[in-house]
Amino acid sequence: MSRLDVKTRSRVLLLRHLQVFFYSLGQLSRQPMSLFMTAAVIGIALALPTGLHVLLQNAQQISGGWDGAAQISLFLKKSVSDAQAKKLAAKLRRRDDIAGVSYLSREKALQEFQQQSGFGDALKALDKNPLPSVLIVQPALAEGQAQQTAALLEDLRKNQRVDVAQLDMQWVKRLYAIMDIVRRGVIVLAGLLALAVLLVVGNTIRLAIQNRRDEIVVMKLIGGTDAFIRRPFLYTGFWYGFFGALMAFIMVYVALLLLSGPVEKLTALYHNNFELSRLDLSTVLILLLTGVMLGLTGSWLAVGRHLRDIEPG
Amino acid sequence: MIRFSHACKRYSGGYDALTGVSFHMPTGQMAFLTGHSGAGKSTLLKLIALLERPSRGQVFVNGQNLARVSRKRIPFFRRNIGIIFQDHQLLFDRTVFDNVALPLIIAGLPQREIGKRVRASLDKVGLLKKEKVYPITLSGGEQQRVGIARAVVNKPPLLLADEPTGNLDPALSREIMHIFEDFSQVGVTVLVATHDLDLISQLPYRQLSLKGGQLVDDTDPSLQEQAG
To answer: Distance, in angstroms, between B10 CA and closest chain A CA?
Structure first.
């Protein structure tokens, strides 16, 4: 054996790995039903966190625009004249922490209110315009700098022309907090399901080892190392993980396809041209990689535990 | 090649399979190990192949103290021993060729080399034409010869056989023994455990007799001839 040089040895080893790689696939394909069922179980376990992850991504995408929607409405005192209001708007526009200011005069506010609220007739009964003029301030902020917005709000509130300064962002914050909890939940769920996949693969490999007990004994008798005997089982685990991930991909893909119609209808009602995003490439790659790693780890654990128990003699 | 020094084997439960066995087999010798079933033949072979370890005493193979062979090294140690079993221990989901090739694949030989050696080995046991069939279609004698081909394909210096003719008729048994003789003549050390006394009484080789786990007789007709 020592006559073989390193190059030949490594080439032979690579060839053997490839052979076992496809041999284990061939073995599995002889029992397509049991392969399908095991892969389906793994697939469901992987599809749940993957699907939730994609939904969460979509939710983030929808709500992403709302961060910028954090506007501060400055309701000016009724004593402030049109010219004064415009002057204040111009002054605010020069500030660094303000991206833009739009001015809504009392007359315009009244017009809008009449058009949109449906209380137009009720307003006609009043002899004076009850509405104040409003400056809508768009803070110049990067995402998540809630404190800075709060400071700006405080500052604007102190202005003597301002009656009420209102930041309506509380619900966005709450939504983000809820999404954070959901994200944590998905991670915990993914962890538990990963454990389930390990157990499923481990158990399947354990049965495979028991079925091929005689073969293992023969291998050990004629000088097969643990690594050699372990190899086909590891590759079997690999294939289980791979097919499980593939199943998960199909399940999530089909589920998203089924959801996309109703979601489009819903978003159309909100005048929103939102499109449900499908599985992106990186998610698919992570899904496949996770499946394969779980398959390998599960079979590694099973083989490590049970191979030692089988000894010839 | 093989040396036993006061080797004992006590199985859990207190059963003594071997007690104080000592003998030496030089390289290239062929010998029979006889005794009734339960006399300790299989246990003795198992100690040589490191399928069991002695409770007391020592076993040396090829100058190597087997007590010093760690669990990790056992596979590499076994590659130098061809083992033949009464029940062949063939894999029935693989062809004859693949069965015989297994030790070479385990040893990591290149494919070309494997083909050559497997055919040479099958040729030696007269089964060259059966390389593509599955063992289940072969007769008992043919299956045993496949087992022998697998045991020798790696050209091991030591061959162990445990009741290799146990299920065969006398003619086939003689045929199998002739194959062992051939290997012995090219320098392979051969130890055959058998209770087929009729068969081996016709053959001029050393006999180690076990009884109740003890070595009770050690005769070598070839030495007697030389002495006479």
So the answer is: 15
Q: Is A311 part of a structural domain of the chain? A: no
B115 is a domain residue: yes
Q: How far apart are CA B196 and CA B193, in angstroms?
A: 9
Q: Which of B155, B180, B206 marks a domain boundary?
A: B155
Tell whether B76 and B97 lie within a shared domain. Answer: no
Range of the domain at B134: 90-155
For residues B72 and B118, membership in a common domain is answered with no
Contact B83, A228 (CB under 8 A): no
Overall average pLDDT of the A2-14 stretch = 78
Per CB-CB distance under 8 Å, the chain B contacts of A16 are 105, 108
Closest C-alpha to B79, from B47, B108, B107? B107
pLDDT tens digits, B105-160: 998 888 889 999 999 999 989 899 999 999 999 998 899 999 999 999 999 999 99
Contact A222 B103 (CB under 8 A): yes
Tell whether A312 is covered by a domain: no
Global ipTM = 0.87
Contacts of B108 in chain A (CB under 8 A): 1, 4, 9, 12-13, 16
